[in-house]
Specification:
binds guanosine-5'-triphosphate; seven-stranded mixed sheet; binds magnesium ion; alpha/beta; 42% helix
């Protein structure tokens, strides 16, 4: 069975090479055949170019440089479409997501449709305490509004079965758009399709190299709009 690890990158020159090496190290300890799919949105720091140069002889590493689009969620969608694994892992490329968890995810995905790394599962946590608590409060709001029993909608590190996505028609551009809001939509639709979730504990490490691409005010606005839209959708489908 093939596993595809999807890595969206934007200005991650200081992280990406070491991260890919770490992913290889951990995934090779499992029995899975794998591919690593980098989707770089033409980073000014030449992250994509660096990967192409360094890994050109390794056919397991596929690098796509998108010249005309810069959008996190659509880069993930693009990577999934270009990949072939029966199992898909999506992770950030700034070491906030620990590659060690890959083997746990691969073990557990045999029993669930999606395995989500969560800061709020027992034994999880986060280095930046302010971010940890703010996100915890916002996650409680999302859980209440959407009635989905997961503790972390906002971490963005997960493992999912491709057949589940295809069977339930979830590989849609409308879902994979924007920034972290795409995962709120994805979780909502997985839940509506009767998917099974498992959360495993994760510890969020703050990035050491590079700058953040996220904008807190914009995120709160977009995520709230997304959740309210889904709530309205839910009320509408319950009425009909
Ligand atoms: N392809 C692509 N990747 C992106 C884009 N924006 C962010 N990324 C990547 O998505 C991941 C998450 O972005 P971050 O900047 O780390 O966002 P964050 O985790 O909220 O912010 P930090 O506090 O810096 O960790 C990283 O791997 C980025 O390189 C984008 O527009 N296109
Ligand atoms: Mg990050």
């Amino acid at each position: 069975m093939i596993v595809s690890v999807i890595l969206p990158t934007y200005n991650e020159r200081g992280n990406i090479v070491k991260l890919i090496q770490e992913i290889i190290k951990h995934i090779e300890k499992t029995h899975y055949v794998y591919e690593i799919v980098v989707v770089d949105d033409n980073s000014p720091d030449k992250t994509g170019f660096l990967c192409t140069q360094l890994f050109s002889k390794n056919s397991k590493i596929k690098v796509f440089i998108r010249k005309n689009k810069r959008e996190f969620a659509s880069a993930i969608y693009y990577g999934i479409k270009k990949s072939k694994g029966a199992i898909i892992i999506v992770m950030d490329t700034d070491f906030s997501h620990n590659p060690k968890l890959i083997s746990v995810m691969l073990k557990m995905i045999k029993h669930y449709d999606i395995v989500i790394a969560s800061r709020y599962a027992k034994n999880g946590g986060g280095e930046n305490k302010k971010r940890y608590w703010m996100s915890k409060i916002y996650n409680s709001y999302l859980r209440y509004i959407l009635k989905i029993n997961i503790s972390d909608f906002l971490f963005g590190y997960f493992c999912i079965r491709r057949d589940f996505l295809i069977k339930n028609d979830l590989l849609q551009r409308d879902i994979f758009t924007g920034f972290g809001d795409y995962f709120i939509r994805l979780a909502y639709h997985i839940n509506k399709s009767g998917g099974t979730f498992l959360e495993i504990p994760a510890f969020y490490k703050s990035r050491i190299y590079g700058a953040s691409k996220s904008d807190l005010k914009k995120m709160i606005y977009t995520y709230t709009k997304t959740s309210l839209k889904l709530l309205v959708h839910d009320i509408f489908i319950k009425k009909n």
